[in-house]
Specification:
It holds the Pfam family GalKase_gal_bdg. It is a single chain. The protein is of the alpha+beta class and about 375 residues long. The protein folds into two domains: about 190 residues, Ribosomal Protein S5, domain 2, CATH 3.30.230; about 170 residues, 2-Layer Sandwich (Alpha-Beta Plaits), CATH 3.30.70.890. It is built from eleven helices and 13 strands. The strands form three sheets. The protein has a six-stranded mixed beta sheet with strand order 5-4-6-3-1-13. Strands 10-11-9-12 form a four-stranded antiparallel beta sheet. Strands 2-7-8 form a three-stranded antiparallel beta sheet, with helices on both faces.
Length: about 375
């Protein structure tokens, strides 16, 4: 249904925010680490019009149901289901002092659901820039990202880090975004696999996210517990060369594995950035694979579908492969010679059929621009 069909009025404009794939640097963002995402072509689009009654009405393409709430009555978790995200976006803008008004919002998305490609961050960011755009207020992209994180943390109640929102707002086409969480610095790193005869294959393994929310919170709690025991504000403070000494000071074996992943993953991410700056993208492949092994063995966030996809991609000719995102389902990425991309995907499809898994799907992974107004 069109915007006019849903709301009975013409829209004032449309805004978009993309999903993301993290090349490397998994579960390091909430440890003050370094991450390296790209924005995807896949995105959430919000078409919007102003309202004069202080209420927000939201709907999604293909559904006739409209959910309404009053901006002045919003409080954390006062709206549930998917509408909690646009409600959270409105709540955090109001709390931050932005004079947003009522709005009609229609959402469309080509981000696959449950794939771990940050649809929640894209939804929050798209809503925020639409509500701000309706009142002609410009806010720096990095600040919008922080507000989106606050909405997801405090309104929705998800203890997420800052990577997804920053990627959705701040990435640029043809680049990966080196984001140092501790310093806040953003560095656009040229990323053009095609120029090196490579393809970044993104494969949605279609695995249900098993216990993802509770397990994510448990991983974060373990990292925070270990940091407190080591007397540091975050695990970023543990130097790679000091890792072995730090591990001997931890009482719990699970905490030791979590710390080992985070510290080595930060080092792998820093090494990947240096290699990409030097034009040595092919040499990044083994770092992808080492990241997956660490996520599988030390952080324990993979599932059989992810492991089979990675192992099969490597056996079929990928120069590096890893799970991407929070884990427990979602996607893998594989850096593959372009001439072999079809064969690698075919091998994964065959392996999944043999294992009785749901058939996987592949996505385009062209590094794209962050959020913007469309018209």
């Amino acid at each position: 249904m069109s915007f006019e069909d849903v709301f009975g009025t013409a829209p004032d404009g449309s805004w978009r925010a993309p999903g993301r794939v993290n090349l490397i640097g998994e579960h390091t963002d909430y440890n003050d680490g370094v991450v390296l995402p790209i924005a995807l072509p896949n995105q959430i689009v919000v078409t919007a019009s102003k309202r004069a009654d202080g209420r927000v009405a939201v709907s999604s393409a293909g559904h006739q149901r409209v959910i309404e709430f009053a901006i002045d009555e919003l409080a954390p978790r006062s709206v549930d289901d998917w509408a909690a995200y646009p409600a959270g976006a409105a709540w955090v803008l109001r709390e931050a002092g932005y004079p947003i008004g009522g709005a009609n919002l229609l959402f469309e998305s080509d981000l696959p659901s449950g794939a771990g490609l940050s649809s929640s961050a894209a939804l929050l960011c798209a809503t925020q820039i639409a509500l701000l755009g309706l009142i002609d207020v410009e806010v720096e992209p990095a600040e919008v990202a922080k507000l989106a994180q606050r909405a997801e943390n405090q309104y929705v109640g998800a203890p997420v880090g800052l990577m997804d929102q920053t990627a959705s707002m701040c990435c640029t086409a043809g680049h990966a975004l080196a984001f140092d969480i501790r310093s806040g610095s953003l560095d656009q790193i040229p990323f053009d696999p095609e120029a090196d005869g490579l393809t970044l294959l993104v494969v949605d393994v279609k695995a249900p996210h098993r216990h993802a929310d509770g397990e994510y919170a448990a991983r974060r709690k373990s990292c925070e517990h270990a940091a407190a025991q080591l007397g540091v504000p975050a695990l970023r403070s543990i130097a790679y060369d000091d890792l072995d000494a730090a591990l001997t000071r931890l009482d719990d074996e699970v905490d030791r594995r979590r710390v080992r992943h985070v510290v080595t993953e930060i080092k792998r991410t820093e090494d990947a950035i240096a290699l990409m700056k030097a034009g040595r993208l092919r040499d990044v492949g083994p770092l992808f694979t080492a990241s997956h092994v660490s996520l599988r063995d030390d952080f324990e966030v993979t599932v059989p579908e992810l492991d089979v996809a990675v192992d099969t991609a490597l056996a079929a000719g990928a120069i590096g492969a890893r799970m991407t995102g929070g884990g427990f389902g979602g996607c893998i990425i594989a850096l593959v010679p372009t001439a072999d991309a079809g064969a690698v995907l075919g091998a994964i499809e065959k392996a999944f059929a043999e294992q009785g898994f749901t058939a996987p799907t592949a996505l385009a992974a062209t590094p794209s621009n962050g959020a913007s107004r469309i018209n």
